[in-house]
Write a structure and sequence with these properties.
The protein has about 190 residues and is α/β, with parallel strands linked by helices. The chain has one domain: Rossmann fold (3-Layer(aba) Sandwich), CATH 3.40.50.170. It has 6 helices and 7 strands, in the order βαβαβαβαβαββα. Strand 4, helix 4 and strand 5 form a beta-alpha-beta unit. Helix 1 (about 15-25) runs parallel beside helix 6. The longest helix is centred in the last third of the chain and has 27 residues, at about 165-190. It is globular, with a radius of gyration of 16 Å.
Length: about 190
């Protein structure tokens, strides 16, 4: 199987992006990072990707105001200019519209910091702690129009320890994400075949 040209979308530091770029150094890995794209021109992850030889671009969402479709049209144009075949969302903090998801259906995955279907959306670590959960974790899933509702590809469980706060739990979940995302992306690409 030829490796698919994969765009990684980020909004911040891009630690999951770095895990995917590292995995792609293996010639047998089925994803080839063709672009790191951010909605935040100041995202530290852009410089980190560029330093590793991956093309980078930014489409700032702010000038588009509430016109999400126009923002996504601009995103789509950049993705297509780079020959993107598959998309990995890695801390991309924008909710995608049905139109964008429909255009890329079956070719977009996301990593989410909870054991879906628990805690869709934001503040997952605080919500898990408030609920008194014994375990928390992360999920890689297919992106569908409904937020964080796509079919689960893989999950990793992390125990909630006595004395955990949001920061300590988030740090352990993030470490689990870095281990989970590369093999889960490979699995997704093979499924998409």
């Amino acid at each position: 199987m030829t490796a698919l040209r994969t765009a990684i979308l980020i909004s911040g530091g891009g630690s999951n992006m770095l895990a995917l770029i590292e995995a792609a150094k293996d010639p047998a890995y089925p994803a080839r990072p063709c672009l790191v794209l951010s909605n935040n021109p100041d995202a530290p992850g852009l410089a980190r990707a560029a330093a590793r030889g991956v093309p980078v671009a930014a489409v700032d969402h702010r000038p588009f105001g509430k016109d999400r479709a126009a923002f996504e049209q601009a995103l789509d144009m950049v993705l297509r200019e780079h020959g993107t075949e598959f998309i990995a969302l890695a801390g991309f903090m924008r909710v995608l519209t049905d139109g964008f998801v429909g255009r890329w259906q079956g070719r977009v995955v996301n990593i989410h910091p909870s054991l879906l279907p628990l805690y869709r959306g934001l503040d997952t670590h605080a919500r898990a702690l408030s609920a008194g959960d014994a375990e928390h974790g992360c999920t890689v899933h297919w992106v569908v129009p409904e937020l964080d509702a796509g079919e689960i590809i893989a999950q990793s469980r992390v125990p909630v320890l006595p004395g955990d706060d949001v920061a300590s739990l988030a740090a352990r979940v993030l470490a689990a994400e870095h281990a989970l995302y590369p093999p889960a992306l490979a699995k997704a690409i093979r499924q998409a075949g």
